[in-house]
Design goal:
The structure is a single chain. With about 160 residues, this protein is mainly β. The protein contains two helices and ten strands. The strands form two sheets. It has a five-stranded antiparallel β-sheet, with no helix packed on it. Strands 5-4-3-2-9 form a five-stranded antiparallel β-sheet, with no helix packed on it. β6 and β7 form a beta hairpin. This is B30.2/SPRY domain-containing protein. InterPro entries: B30.2/SPRY (IPR001870), B30.2/SPRY_sf (IPR043136), ConA-like_dom_sf (IPR013320), Gid1/RanBPM/SPLA_SPRY (IPR044736), SPRY_dom (IPR003877), Ubq-SigPath_Reg (IPR050618). It holds the Pfam family SPRY.
């Protein structure tokens, strides 16, 4: 299912066996073209937040950039947000915004994608309730935002 500019938040709960130390969970927003043999962020026009070292990968194969601490404990909640106006991507861990991970996405249609190099079980949440509280107000899934938008449109309606 395509992910477009009108969608802006997503949470992922990690619910795998905590003794499984040999897997890496990755979250990314991915464009239409994706080679399924590469992990998120290791393909052109993609960004991935890798759990093994907390690094961000943007259109690269090997090195990535320092972004956050290693993550992936059982019950961790990983989120990804996208600001369409300035084309910025950010990630959250357990509701805490980690800051801007990337600016300058050039495409409007994005796909939420998860990659793993081992067995893991994930619970995916597209809303409307997110661990990152700001998303509950700003998300397109938010009733508050929807009601505020309708009110604003009604107030500015041209006769």
């Amino acid at each position: 299912m395509p992910y477009d500019d009108n969608d802006d938040k997503k949470d992922e709960d990690i619910v795998s066996d905590e003794n499984n130390k040999n897997f890496e969970v990755l979250f990314k927003r991915l464009l239409l073209i994706f080679f399924h043999l590469r992990l998120p962020g290791c393909n052109t026009d993609s960004i991935g937040f890798h759990s093994d070292e907390g690094r961000i990968f943007r259109n690269e194969k090997y090195t990535g950039s320092t972004y956050a601490e290693k993550w992936g404990k059982v019950n961790d909640v990983i989120g990804c947000g996208y600001y369409p106006n300035n084309r910025q991507v950010f990630f959250t861990i357990n509701g805490e915004n980690l800051g801007i991970a990337y600016t300058g996405l050039l495409h409007n249609i994005l796909y939420p994608t998860i990659g793993s190099n081992g067995h893991c079980i994930l619970k995916v949440n597209f809303g409307p309730e997110f661990e990152y509280k700001e998303a509950n107000i700003m998300s397109v899934a938010s009733k508050k935002l929807l009601n505020a938008s309708k009110k604003l449109l009604n107030e500015n309606e041209i006769p």
